[in-house]
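Researcher: Here's a chain I'd like modeled. Treat it as a single chain, no partners, no ligands.
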Amino acid sequence: MTAHIESKKGDIAKTVIMPGDPLRAKYIADNFLTDVKEVNDVRGMLAFTGKYKEKEVTVFASGMGMPSMGIYAYELYKFYDVEKIIRVGTAGANKKEVNVLDIVIADSAFTLSAYPKLFFDDSEKEYYATKELTNKLEEITKEKNLSYQRGRIITSDVFDVYLDKEKYFANYPADLDTLASEMETAALFAIAKHLNKEAASILTIVDSSFSNIEISSGDRETKLNDMILLALDSI
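Model: Modeled as a single isolated chain. Structure tokens:
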């Protein structure tokens, strides 16, 4: 056990699907897994281990932001021998070509956060997904004929919806081409890099300052289900 995870070592599978929201972790367990066992509820950060098509998998919430993702991803990799983590989350579009409800597969995450420097004395700004795992996710996305884009994203320490977009993007290099913004992926990729583990991130676009489209709760659930199944099928 750690200060944040009450699970015994054998309770956690080698592959973890990681949404941000604890209730989404429960939703995934309830709707997609069999033989489910709750393995963590410390601080309300729910986790469940079960089977998907006879393969063992753990669904473990990360919470919001890089510090929270950093705690759970690090402890799962370091103390529970997890081999791969796939983040499933939501994001906002950074360009008009990225449509609401598109799936974004992250090749890399650019960040201005001090998190990697403070934790690993790593001054890089861009962190990369595991290529083989990411290729598998793209392959399954194509097989399912889902609308998606693959490329670089931004991981921000602030919720960019609250900011004027011109002010937000002024902080980043003018030639930085990114698909979307979210708040966790760079921490996951940085930890995987330094612990020699596997990591990937797939995101559903739920808002865009370039569009006035409003999505219904039903459409949002369907598209999040598409993303969840992509992650599960990749294992």
